[in-house]
Amino acid sequence: MPDPGALSPPGPRLARLWRLGFGLLGLAALTLQFGLMLSNADGAPLSRSLINFFSYFTILTNLLVAFALLAPAIDARAVLGRWMAGEGVRAAVTMYAVVVGLTYHLLLARVWSPEGWWWLADTLLHTAMPLAMLVDWLLFTPKGRLRWFDAVKWLLFPAVFGAWTLAHGALSGWYPYWFIDVGELGLERAAINFAGLLAVFLVLGLAVVAIDRVIGRKRTPVSGSAA
Question: Label partner for 66 (CA 20 to 30 A): which of 53, 75, 98, 210?
Answer without folding.
Answer: 210
